[in-house]
Amino acid sequence: MNLLSALREKHKLGKKSIAVLIDPDKVDDLSKLHYLINLASENCVDYFFVGGSLITTANLSEVIKHIKKNVNLPVVLFPGNSMQIEPSADAILFLSLISGRNPELLIGQHVMAAPILKNTRLEIIPTGYMLINSGKITSVAYISNTIPIPEDKYSLAACTAMAGEMLGLQCIYLDAGSGAEREISPKMIASVRRAISLPLIIGGGINSPIKAMNALEAGADMIVIGNALEKDPDMLIEISDKVYEWNQRLAGTSRQ
Ligand SMILES: CC(C)=CCC/C(C)=C/CC/C(C)=C/CC/C(C)=C/COP(=O)(O)OP(=O)(O)O
Ligand SMILES: O=P(O)(O)OC[C@@H](O)CO
Ligand SMILES: [Mg+2]
């Protein structure tokens, strides 16, 4: 089964996933990456996301090779632009930045990426990418030259996600931005959740087990953790535990 079908299947069952985000730019020491990879494989992590708004190093393929050599988990490209295509990954979030009005990130980069992707075996996951305001200006907001959706404009976000679904996008990623001051609120997640039936990915500023649990309870199908693990990789143990507990409880209730 491909990743998207598996994600849809999990969504139907109410099963949650967790992705670890690796920013290749922040990998200066392969032994630190190695530690995180091992933690991920011991702690029921489902995916590695790899990418960044700005990649100044040439180590994308090396990072992916290192992950694939050491653990049998899917590696999904989370690209900031069409230069971040690496055929050795398993899939790519084919992001369209639908919260913004920058044509380059709605369709421009995609036109350049399409013929390159056609010649790879990467699974394409058409994804509506939505930035939600989180306090300070994030790298993605700055680089994309777009205004994030205000964090209290629930129906703006819900209608944006709804339009993404109607356009045929296959999942929605709500992002407060890497290292966000404030993670996306449960009320915002729940509003978008009610508006669509697609798998919903939530990321940005999730740096504690409580924040992870809140996102899951509000309707996230998948949570993405990056910055928190750059600061303290061991935080993965407690955060992934929340996802594990959720799925165990679900398995328990479905057996009754
Ligand atoms: C279609 C293809 C192949 C590319 C375009 C993809 C689009 C539309 C991207 C949207 C805009 C963008 C710059 C997204 C980047 C998302 C990302 C990988 C964020 C990770 O966090 P960083 O922004 O790197 O955070 P730090 O500042 O903490 O490094
Ligand atoms: O780095 P953090 O804050 O965990 O955010 C993850 C991801 O959603 C960023 O695009
Ligand atoms: Mg980055």
Tell me the CATH topology: TIM Barrel
User: CATH superfamily membership, which one?
Assistant: FMN-linked oxidoreductases
Number of helices: 10
What share of residues is helical?
40-55%
Cα-to-Cα separation, first versus last residue: 28 Å
Strand and helix order: HEHEHEEHEHHEHEHEHH
Largest sheet: 8 strands, parallel, barrel
CATH top-level class: Alpha Beta
Query: Are any ligands bound, and if so which?
Result: geranylgeranyl diphosphate, SN-glycerol-1-phosphate, magnesium ion
Bulk shape: globular
**What is the total number of structural domains?**
1
Mind explaining what this structure looks like?
- The chain is α/β, with parallel strands linked by helices and 256 residues long.
- The chain has a single domain, classed as TIM Barrel (Alpha-Beta Barrel).
- Helices cover 45% and strands 16% of the residues.
- It is built from 10 helices and 8 strands.
- Strands 1-2-3-4-5-6-7-8 form an 8-stranded parallel barrel, surrounded by 6 helices.
- Helix 3 links the parallel strand 2 and strand 3.
- Helix 7 runs parallel beside helix 8 and helix 8 runs parallel beside helix 10.
- The longest helix is centred in the C-terminal third of the chain and has 21 residues.
- The two termini are 28 Å apart.
- The model has no long low-confidence stretch (mean pLDDT 96).
- SN-glycerol-1-phosphate binds next to strand 8 and helix 9.
- Pfam families: PcrB.
